[in-house]
Amino acid sequence: MFSIIIPLYNKGPYILNAVNSVLGQSYSNFELIIVNDGSTDDSLEKIGSYSDHRIKIINQNNSGVSWARNNGVKEATKDYICFLDADDWWDINYLSEMNKLIKDYPEAGLYGCKYSLVKYGIKKHATIGLDSDFQHGLINYFRVYSKTMCMPLTSSSVIIPKKIFEESGGFKPELKLGEDFDLWLRIAVKYKVAFLNKPLAFYRQDSNELYKAVNSKKLYNKLEHYIFHLDYLKEDEKSNPDLKYLLDKTRVESLYRYYISKMYVGETAQIIKKVDFSKQPTLIRLKYNLPPGVNKFWFNSRIWLSGIKQFILKSFYFLRNIKYVY
Fold first, then answer.
1. How many CB atoms lie within 10 A of CB 314?
2. Model confidence, pTM
3. Average pLDDT over residues 18-45
4. What is the C-alpha to C-alpha distance for residues 163 and 109, in angstroms, rounded to an integer?
5. Farthest-apart Cα atoms in the chain, separation
6. Using CA atoms, how far apart are residues 29 and 98, in angstroms rounded to an integer?
7. DSSP bridge pairs for 3
8. What 3-state class would DSSP assign to 45?
9. Residue 6 CA to chain centroid, in angstroms?
10. Which of 46, 75, 154, 175 gets the highest tally of CB atoms within 10 A of its CB?
11. Which residues does 297 contact at the CB level (< 8 Å), separation at least 6?
């Protein structure tokens, strides 16, 4: 039924937890393909300790997470592809519950479930834009996403029929930010999306923070950032107002730092011109009309306050886990 792909690069402290959460599933009809993306720590040594016949290990030179996932899918023999990041993990009933979702909605091209965010030992459910009484069913992916701008699908909480993954072309290796969002969009404009509103996946946010793609301190090259590569949707957004609204919200949020930093001025201006600002919040409209100096001060203040918050959380986590010796 399921081929599970784990891309692995220097996640020694976390990989055993991820693998154990797969092997401990209540649903056992799966294969686990771990793609070692040129790890230089003890990650490969740790996964080498398993003898389960369902595990297959592939080694490749360090090429990035998209190549790792795509190469894993090439080796997959099952009909449905699951992805799990090496520092995330699943509830014991993840595959069992998702199997039921697939049987209930066989026409879908994407399947997802609610997930929990984990940072410094604190878990909280992602605030996905669903009604409180929603349990499971087909969703308007674009409308749900744009409601809270909290992604309904993550790379550790999504399942894709293999034939649809291959038809879509898989992940774009050149993208370093938003490669998953880009793929979900390409599939969601053509196929239905089924969703289970149970928190069955756990998304860790505090591992290797400097290398997280969502690191707010980094401005990506335009060749690597998905926001500069969405022209293929220009016809779809003309006929789909929910897609248009999501893309506009994504544009104004993703391009704000490029806008105030005067980076890729021409490209940024062309993309911003596409936005229907009449449907954007007042604060967004204000930010894009403030003097550059005021904008930079406002943004740097937010970064400073966020840094204080993260310091407090880290300190609390450290103090809570410190072991005293008497």
1. 14
2. 0.88
3. 97
4. 9
5. 69
6. 13
7. 31, 81
8. helix
9. 14
10. 175
11. none
